[in-house]
Amino acid sequence: MLDRIQKSADFIKSKTNLDFKIGIILGSGLGNLGEEIEAECTLRYDEIPNFPVSTVEGHSGKLILGKLEGVPVIALQGRFHYYEGYSLQETTFPVRVFKALGIDTLLLSNASGGLDPAHEVGDLMVLTDHLHLFPDNPLRGKNYDELGPRFPDMSEPYSKALIHKSREISNKFELGLHYGVYAGTTGPTYETPAEYKYFRIIGADAVGMSTTAETIVAIHGGMRVFGVSVISDLGVEGKIIEISHEEVQEVAAKAGPKFSILFKEMVKYLAS
């Protein structure tokens, strides 16, 4: 594991002279922010030693090394999912590589189904906590002390300071951000009405098929995490309609301008 991480990190380092502290993972339909990064180098995942390859439409499968608002960032334009057949250790491998590259803050995004009756399609929800509902944990197995402790504390999975900053950004730019708990599930099926109701009962405000394992690994490695969901459909009783992956991507793309403002302002804040 340590050798594989280092080989990937060394390959990426050989392509740039930039010093990275901020990593970004762009979810379904949110890859357009990647076009706003002034890229010094763009690498296909299949070029990077030991990297998995994204197989899902809307996840372009590129690693971007460059600057956003003049700040060095490294961004995954497309992520890896458990439902593609990868283990959680594999889906989170890039987060390990980010840490080896010096990343100390991880910005995560995803498209999810909204469970809060106050949600509308196209809203943004900042993650305040999560429910990891996958049948596995990315830290299961041998623990490497070089990567983090055997039993990492998860009392603050998403940085309270960055959540507070997002409220200031939302007020300034009138983004109308929501805040809530994200439930991560395996997919690839969308939820049944009964499942939507169950997730709401156990405390979730949105549900999706990613993110929680990445957060666990980032916290294990000592990073700060900030996460945002684009509400791409509604799992609220009376508002549940048939949904497709194409429609999810379309909604996420329409929410792109608000999402871009939030992430660009957060990056500027982190660099200040």
Fold and architecture overview:
This protein has 272 residues and is of the alpha/beta class. It has one domain (2-271): Rossmann fold (3-Layer(aba) Sandwich). It is 30% helix and 24% strand. The chain is built from eight helices and nine strands. The protein has a five-stranded mixed beta barrel with strand order 5-8-7-6-9, surrounded by five helices. Helix 5 links the parallel strand 7 (178-184) and strand 8 (206-208). Helix 4 crosses helix 8 (256-271). The longest helix is centred in the C-terminal third of the chain and has 16 residues, at 256-271. The model has no long low-confidence stretch (mean pLDDT 93).
Can I get a quick summary?
Helix content is 30%, strand content 24%.
Topology:
Elements: H1 2-13, E1 22-26, E2 38-44, E3 62-68, E4 71-77, H2 88-91, H3 93-100, E5 105-114, E6 124-132, H4 160-173, E7 178-184, H5 193-201, E8 206-208, H6 212-220, E9 224-234, H7 245-254, H8 256-271
Parallel strand pairs: 1-4, 1-5, 5-9, 6-7, 7-8
Antiparallel strand pairs: 2-3, 3-4, 5-8, 6-9
Helix pairs in contact: 1-3, 4-8
What's the oligomerization state?
A: single chain
Q: What's the SSE pattern? A: HEEEEHHEEHEHEHEHH
Low-confidence stretches: none
Average pLDDT reading: 93
Number of domains: 1
Overall structural class, as computed from helix and strand content, comes to: alpha/beta
